[in-house]
Structure formats: C-alpha cells, structure tokens
Amino acid sequence: MSGAGLTLARPWLTLDLGREMRVLSWAINRPGFVTARRILWREVRNADLPEGLDVHRWLEEELVARGEAESVAFLTSRRIDRVHDRAARIEGITARAVATVGLSNAERVGLRQTAPRGPFGTINIAVTLDTGLGETGLIEALSIAVQARTAAIVDAAIPLAGGLATGTGTDCIALAAPPGATDYAGLHTAIGEAIGRATYEAVREGAEQWRAEQAD
Predict the structure, then answer these.
(1) C-alpha–C-alpha distance, residues 111 and 117, integer Å
(2) Closest C-alpha among 110, 108, 105 to residue 124
(3) Which of these, 216, 97, 106, lies nearest to 167 by C-alpha position?
(4) Nearest 5°: CA angle at 32, between 85 and 97?
(5) Helical ranges in the chain per DSSP H
(6) CB 28: neighbour CB atoms within 10 A?
(7) Angle at CA of residue 94, ends 93 and 98, nearest 5°
(8) Which residue, among 74, 59, 102, has the nearest Cα to 14 in the 3D structure?
(9) Contact 83, 8 (CB under 8 A)
(10) Tens of pLDDT along the chain (216 residues)?
(11) Handedness of CA 108, 114, 118, 121 (dihedral sign)
(12) In terms of pTM, does the model score above 0.70?
C-alpha cells in the first residue's frame, strides 16, 4: 500500500482527502453530491451480510460506530489490502486513483450473465483531483473515470459469454475535488487526461493482480 492519507486497518481502508471536498458518487451511503473529508472501503464476507439484512442500516451503524457518519463508503468482498494507488500529473494538475479490483462478478455492458460466479469482488475507485470543479465539471470528470475503468477492464481481457468484461455488476466510483467554477473536464482537457491516466493505471494493475491470483 502506498500514498499519503491512505490507512489500512482491516476490514477498513480509509482515504483521508486532507480537507473537505465535494464528492460525487453512487455509493451506498451519502450518494450524489456531498461534502466529505474521507472515503472508506469496508471489506465484507458472506457472514457479514446474511439474507434479509438491511445493508444500508447496517453500514450506517458501522460508520457511526467509527465516527465516520459523514464519510462516503464502499462495500466489497475484495481483500482491501489488494489496493492500487496511482497518480498522474498533467500541466500542473494532479489526479489520484485508489482502487480495489475484484472481478468475480464481472459483467459485459448490455448483456447480463445468467449464473453467479462467486462473492461480489467488485471494483471500487476513489479519484481525487487537486483543482476545483463545479457540479457540471464533477459530472464530466466522473464520466472520464468510468471510461478509464471500462478501458482498463476491456484491455485486461476477461472473457465472458458474449464478449469481454467491461466491469462488474456492483462497481462504484467516487470522485472528489475542491469546490470551484471549472465545468470542463473532458478528454481534451488536462483534467480529463490526468483522471483517465491515473484511473486506468490503478484499475489495470488491479485487474492483472486479480487474474494472477486466479491462476495460482
């Protein structure tokens, strides 16, 4: 594990953003546009999530017990010590991607798999940016991170019925940036390039590690 602000204490992995930032995600808790100081991963096993459990309430109680009720949090069955931390700096703008990558429930977009393939070893990515973005910029920046995730998984060439995997059925991405007025973060911009490079490298590295583990 590497990188400032990243702390592993299984079953928790914590990324301290260093200050309050605007965060956009579809996380199970605090989704949408929120303000947060930390992004957390909670590693789970089948015993943690018995049938009939209210997962939202369970996670909320777990976060409250840690004093992290205001944080954004992911759930994953992927071992959180298998974390990949990459950064890219383009024209003075730095993006960082911290990812855990499991592909046991891999999917191809537009074609759901018909049989479960094991625990939900999902892809969870926290992307941080050191330059301010407005809400429109956050939305576009998040779309770049999603593109980079997909490109990395396609390039990792995980075969499924109907084609190569493009992600998993339970992926989640959170993008954090200081408040700002910039509303452009596409592929033609330094912001988009930095986000895309850092995210691609972290996810591709994680996918290759996962594949290597399956071959052991």
Answers:
(1) 15
(2) 105
(3) 106
(4) 10
(5) 55-65, 135-156, 190-215
(6) 17
(7) 155
(8) 74
(9) yes
(10) 457 899 999 999 999 999 999 999 999 999 999 999 999 999 998 778 788 889 999 999 999 999 999 999 999 989 999 999 999 999 999 999 999 999 988 999 999 877 655 556 799 999 999 999 999 999 999 999 999 999 999 999 999 988 999 999 999 999 999 999 999 999 999 999 999 999 999 999 999 999 999 887
(11) positive
(12) yes
**Rounded distance between C-alpha atoms, residue 78 and residue 75, angstroms:** 9
42 and 11 Cβ atoms separated by less than 8 Å: yes
DSSP SS3 for 3: coil
Query: What type of residue is 177?
Result: A
Residue indicated by tokens 């383009």? 90
42 by DSSP, 3-state: which?
strand
The two tokens of residue 80 are 């959180």
Structure tokens at 126: 């926290």
Are the C-beta atoms of 15 and 84 separated by less than 8 Å? no
